[in-house]
Amino acid sequence: MQLVFATNNLNKLKEVEKLIPDHIALLSLKDINCLEDIPETQNTIEGNAIQKAEYIKKQYGYDCFADDTGLEVEALNGKPGVFSARYAGEQRNADDNMNKLLTALQGSNNRNAQFKTVIALHLNGQIQTFTGICKGEITLRKSGKEGFGYDPIFKAEGFNKTFAQMILEEKNKIGHRGKAVSQLISFLNSYI
Questions:
Q1: Residue whose C-alpha is closest to residue 68's, from 51, 87, 49
Q2: Tag placement on the chain: N or C end, fewer CB within 10 Å?
Q3: C-alpha–C-alpha distance, residues 170 and 141, integer Å
Q4: What's the distance, Cα to Cα, between the start and end of the chain in Å?
Q5: On the CB side of 95, how many CA atoms lie within 13 Å of its CA?
Q6: Among 63, 68, 95, 151, which one carries the catalytic annotation?
Q7: Is 68 a catalytic residue?
């Protein structure tokens, strides 16, 4: 089986490549000569994932899957959510996003948050979605050099270090994307 993973984010691609079994050939957007930004204009994480998968199928004809991820912070009524990548502006800068979030939470005792990933699989004309959630909290400061995005300020429930302080295999076992990919793989294994 061959599937395109519809992402331009090389960090996401690296995470997912570690999880996908060998009998599934994973193609990147670069592999199919998709060099444009895929539209993400929906107002939900699910909507964006579906939109990206539909775009690749319609424009390039490949069976594919796409994901969208958001960080949902309880004290901010679920923000930044669907706007996580652009929280501090269109430049999509992780440090700017983290700094804005840490500033928004100054003085707040409620630091509960969750990462949510939705994967939309477009296979044989049908769309399936898979959702992975990792609950945790926002730390007071950045810690760690691994990962990407908000990883330096997110600590998963039951752990005393941030995602950015974990090796990739450890993060994949407990993280939102790992959970969603696990559901995707179970579905694909039952489908084959």
A1: 49
A2: C
A3: 21
A4: 8
A5: 2
A6: 68
A7: yes
* Structural domain boundaries, residue 161: 2-191
* Residue 23 confidence (pLDDT) above 80: yes
Give pLDDT, residue 160: 96
Separation between Cα atoms, residue 184 and residue 189, nearest integer Å:
9
The dihedrals phi and psi of 126, each to the nearest 5 degrees, come to -120, 150
CATH number for the domain spanning 98: value is 3.90.950.10
Which sign does the torsion angle of CA 8, 50, 130, 1 carry? negative
Domains contained in the chain, number: 1
Q: Where are the alpha helices (DSSP H) in the chain?
A: 10-19, 45-60, 94-104, 168-174, 176-191
- Spatial CA neighbour of 70 closest among 39, 49, 52: 49
Lowest mean pLDDT among 36-40, 62-66, 78-82, 114-118: 36-40
- Yes or no: say if 163 and 151 are a contact pair by the CB < 8 Å rule: yes
Distance CA 162, CA 41 (A): 30
The strand pairing partners of 133, in sequence order, are 116
